[in-house]
Amino acid sequence: MMNKFLNSVIHSKRFVQSRIILGLDIILSLFSSTFVLLLIGLLLPSFEFNGLQIAVWLAGAVVTSFTSFRIFKVYRAIIRYATLRELGRIFSASIGKEILLWLIMAAFSIMSFKSLLLLGMTVMDFFITLCSLSLIRVWMVILYDKLREMHKTDSGLKRILVYGIGDNAAGVVASLRNSAYYQVVGFLSHGEKVNEHRISGLDVCFFKSEEDLGEIKKRYAVSGILFPDVSDARLEQDRLISFCKDTHLKTYIIPGVDEMTEGATPGNYVRKIKIEDLLGRDEIKISMNEIVENFNNKTVMVTGAAGSIGSELCRQLATLGVKQLILFDNAETPLHNIRLELEDRFPELNFVPVIGDVRSEYRLDYVFRKHHPQIVFHAAAYKHVPLMEENPCEAVWVNVTGSRQVADKCVEYGAEKMVMVSTDKAVNPTNIMGCTKRLAEIYVQSLGLAIERGEIKGKTKFVTTRFGNVLGSNGSVIPRFREQIEHGGPVTVTHPDITRFFMTIPEACRLVMEAATFASGTQIFVFDMGESVKIATLAERMIRLAGLEPGRDIRIEFTGLRPGEKLYEEVLATKENTLPTCHDRIFIAKAREYAYTNALDVVTALTRQATSISIPEMVRLMKQTVPEFKSKNSEYEIYDKEISDTADNS
For the whole prediction, is pTM greater than 0.85? Predict the structure, then answer.
């Protein structure tokens, strides 16, 4: 019963009403003024107050307290969260009370302005009032903390240490002070312990080895370490996080603001560290003012709006003051889910979810005709390499024909800009999916250049953005590994040496919007993807993050390369194949240009062949148009040999 009462008191979101606090403060102030009269009687026994003086002094104390406390709003602070700033308000309110009380006593001719007695009384009253109001608050904070500690002892809260000793770490401790799930028992820092350190009343623990961490775990009975932000976790992934795995300590993190839902605070949004946190890089610096100016009050359309990239683009665009956001996708349930999310997080956003397919010219025409989008992000695509290797006609229909139809509608309805999301697999493609994305790039680029040269009437600028794998996207390797680990393994990797470049979804979307903002014409932008990651190593790290041991608890199984799959993806940004831009992570690709008429003929023919399921003719045309397309581990390698033999014979 007592524990239930403590829990209701400590975690209640209801606080004492401000008028009750005001009343209590006035009563304390009145007692202080009464105590002053008693002190004067003890210190000056020869002096006696008459009834009028006592009445005016006490009545004045009530009136002046009410007035001053209302002016300085000392009653509005939540006492359990009281800070030194609140004591400053009490100090000012107490001075205000004494000035007003001095004026009242003089105005009623009870005492002279110059009376030393009146001056002494007001000074004494100031100190007693200040002390009584301050001490009652300090006492209430101490009492609340004691109740909280009593509750935490019996509540089974997770005892944790916060990594770091800076302002960020101290701020985390303050935000978790009233957590219903975690009890911070101290701070943790790397280094040699010189002497005793305490921050916010909590011990600072120092570690240099795994043994040190084990001793700290036993001494403080902690179950986990909390990192204030992702950059701290990345710095310690090879040391402290590794130690935590071996000592069976959980690792937690407070995610970035863009991951928190509306109304969430760090105190209630702690989560376990994920592999995506450790693989990412420091936050990208982008020109937010220019981006906001570019999209503010514009009608923006996103195709593939329910996908991994498309949905994140919608979330970020929702913060930029767009006039209207058109969400275009053919996946009913995912589109419904992103709609519910946007309605919840951005209630003021004017957005329109549209069920539609980029393969349907009539549906696209309806959306462009009705809403006239000014900027179009084209993220709709088929992306899974093995699946597209088995279904090449659908890959062409969506990735090539669909892109052409979106681009044509942009020109027809006068869109200012179309931004196409492409992939690193379009560079020297070895599979159907990569080649279809390259063909889409060719058509969009040739159309934009034709407009710039005056060969075709229009005003639309076409921007293409290429990047590699995104962390945690639908159907990608990380969710797959996580699911396999949860089911006890094995974790399947295609090849021991296979590597990939990774980028977080928010990071990729920010770069896409940045490229779209400063693009001056028809350009293909590529992103600096950082260092490649070995997939087998990634699998091992994910298993260890789950608190398990690779090979002992979870087995890693190598299944062989899938059709069309490369061992290594292309490095997108090199000095040989790119030009620099004003952003150190974005480059302009040196891509071969195609005549628009030739590109149009190829896309038209490919659409016809895809419709009639003429796979051999279609694949041959794809390879002839994109000569760098060389199939790997695929049934379509025979066409490379045919083309090579024909070239040799000619």
Answer: no
